[in-house]
Each structure stands twice: as structure tokens, then as C-alpha cells.
């Protein structure tokens, strides 16, 4: 069974209630933008963007029910596996691409990033978030989904990270909360213990921010707001890597100051 068949009924009959996490993405969009969302999920962004911005909204997802749920809200949509298939949209079509907690699910994140870059205008905005792997979210490539390595992944594919925002406590109802419910019979005491733990994390988060520090492991997810710099990219990364390791071009050694610069 393929990923489309397996995902068909995901997000069926689920709410799209606005959270502060999605508000981070909405705040980066401006009136008049052509916006593409990769990975609709519960439709939270789709169902709320029109309340805050006047945009033309497009969407793609691998789950059929997710797209059916927002069909009346979109200019156009596509059922597609962004890991392996091409988007039907034209090159340089969109001002903004939004992709919230999708990359950790992708079997081929590099293919997805190339397709996003293709349909996004030069200088366009890419808003992408990924969860903290320490929160217990299963990852296909856990080493990639860290602040440093994901930033480098974006950067060496010519996405300039202009903002990095962190959201939520890493321990929440989906990880520590479930453990507490199992070990503490009284659900009110378990909930109180979770709230106490989260309050302590938020105090530490606040303290580190006052000191000008970004302690990434304290947060549930990370938002990268990027500018598409494909107009200066030249050849794609895969071809430059091929040149480096073959006789297509004179070898100048393994080190390159751009690609090996610290993220």
C-alpha cells in the first residue's frame, strides 16, 4: 500500500482551531500574497488565514480527506506525495510557501525542498517548522531535524534563514502527559503535575531569553522563516556534489568556505 492510500483517511472530521503556533506563520504573510501550503493536516492554517489576511490560498497534501475538508477555501489544490512527485504548479508562481511540521515525515526531504524552491519566486518567503526530536516525535531522519543541521540544510540549498522562532514547551500532554496519566491514577493530579512541569520549563525559557540565549532543547518546535535565494544558486547542490567527487571538474579539495561555514 502506498503513502497516499495509507494517508487517505487522516485528518477526517478534525477541528481547525487556531493556536499560537499557527499564528506565527500567519504573521509572516501579507495581504495580496499567493500562498501555497504543503501539508494541510487539520486545516488550521487554511481555515484561519482568511480571517487575518487577504490572500490567494493553494494547498497540497498526501491525505485526501485533508484536502476535501478545505476544498471551498482554496483556489486550487493537489493530492501529491511531495517526497517523490512533482507539484503541478508553475515555476516562480508563489510569494509564500508554508510547510508546518511536515519535513520530519518525508522520505526524501531534498526532493521536497527542490520542488518548493521551484514554485517559489526568487526572494519569496518559505515558512517551515519542524518539531524537537527530543519531544518523542518519530523521525525518519532525526539527525536532520535539529536547529543547526536543518538550518544548514536550508542554507546550502540557497534558502537564507532570516528569522528563527521557537515555540512551546518540549514536554507536553502528548509525551510526558501520557506517562503521567499511566503512573498517576488521579487524572487531576496528573494534569496538575504536567502543568507544573510546563510552568518550570517556561520559566527557564524566559530566563534564557533574558540572557540572550536560545536553548533549543527546551522547545517543542522550531520555525524557520527563509528567503528564497535561488537567483544566485547556479547549479543545484546535487550537481555541485557530483562535481566535487568526480572528474567533471578539476578537484580543489573537499573544503569549500560557503558549504562548510557554520550554520
Query: How far apart are the first and last residues' alpha carbons, in Å?
Result: 38 Å
What number is the mean pLDDT? Answer: 81
Count every helix, treating DSSP H or I runs of 4 or more residues as helices. Answer: 9
Overall tally of domains: 1
Give the overall shape.
globular
* CATH topology (level 3) name: Rossmann fold
Quick one: CATH class?
Alpha Beta
Give unreliable regions as ranges: 6-15
How can the largest sheet be summarized? Answer: 7 strands, mixed
Q: Give the strand tally.
A: 7
Radius of gyration: 20 Å
How large is the share of residues in beta strands? 15-25%
The name of the CATH architecture is: 3-Layer(aba) Sandwich
Structural class: alpha/beta
Oligomeric nature of the chains = single chain
List the helices and strands in order: HHEHEHEEHEHEHHEH
- Within the largest sheet, what's the order of strands? 3-2-1-4-5-7-6
Structure notes:
This protein has 263 residues and is an alpha/beta fold. It is built from nine helices and seven strands, in the order H-H-E-H-E-H-E-E-H-E-H-E-H-H-E-H. Helix 2 (20-26) packs across helix 3 (44-52) and helix 7 runs antiparallel to helix 8 (187-210). The longest helix has 24 residues, at 187-210. The radius of gyration is 20 Å and the shape is globular.
Question: What is the compact description of this entry?
Answer:
By secondary structure, the chain is of the alpha/beta class.
Topology:
Blueprint: H1 3-7, H2 20-26, E1 34-38, H3 44-52, E2 56-61, H4 64-69, E3 76-79, E4 94-100, H5 109-119, E5 120-131, H6 147-155, E6 159-169, H7 176-183, H8 187-210, E7 219-228, H9 237-244
Parallel strand pairs: 1-2, 1-4, 2-3, 4-5
Antiparallel strand pairs: 5-7, 6-7
Helix pairs in contact: 2-3, 7-8
Amino acid at each position: 500500500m502506498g503513502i497516499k492510500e495509507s494517508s487517505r483517511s487522516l485528518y477526517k472530521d478534525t477541528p481547525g482551531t487556531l493556536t499560537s503556533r499557527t499564528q506565527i506563520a500567519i504573521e509572516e504573510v501579507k495581504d495580496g500574497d499567493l500562498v501555497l501550503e504543503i501539508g494541510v493536516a487539520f486545516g488550521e492554517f487554511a481555515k484561519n488565514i482568511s480571517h487575518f489576511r487577504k490572500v490567494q490560498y493553494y494547498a497540497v497534501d498526501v491525505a485526501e480527506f485533508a484536502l476535501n475538508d478545505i476544498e471551498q477555501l482554496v483556489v486550487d489544490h493537489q493530492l501529491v506525495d511531495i517526497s517523490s512527485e512533482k507539484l503541478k504548479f508553475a515555476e516562480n508562481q508563489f510569494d509564500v510557501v508554508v510547510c508546518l511540521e511536515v519535513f520530519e515525515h518525508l522520505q526524501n526531504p531534498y526532493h521536497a525542498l527542490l520542488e518548493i524552491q521551484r514554485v517559489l519566486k526568487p526572494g519569496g518567503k518559505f515558512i517551515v517548522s519542524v518539531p524537537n526530536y527530543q519531544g518523542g516525535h518519530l523521525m525518519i531522519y532525526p539527525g536532520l531535524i535539529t536547529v543547526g543541521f536543518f538550518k544548514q540544510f536550508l542554507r546550502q540549498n540557497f534558502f537564507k534563514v532570516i528569522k528563527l522562532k521557537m515555540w512551546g514547551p518540549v514536554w507536553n500532554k502528548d509525551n510526558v502527559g501520557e506517562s503521567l496519566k499511566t503512573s498517576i491514577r488521579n487524572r487531576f493530579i496528573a494534569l496538575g503535575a504536567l502543568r507544573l512541569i510546563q510552568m518550570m520549563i517556561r520559566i527557564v525559557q524566559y530566563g534564557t531569553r533574558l540572557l540572550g540565549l536560545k536553548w533549543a532543547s527546551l522547545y517543542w518546535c522550531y520555525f524557520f522563516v527563509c528567503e528564497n535565494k535561488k537567483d544566485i544558486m547556479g547549479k543545484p547542490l546535487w550537481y555541485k556534489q557530483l562535481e566535487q567527487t568526480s572528474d567533471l571538474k578539476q578537484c580543489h579539495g573537499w573544503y569549500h568556505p560557503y558549504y562548510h561555514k557554520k550554520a
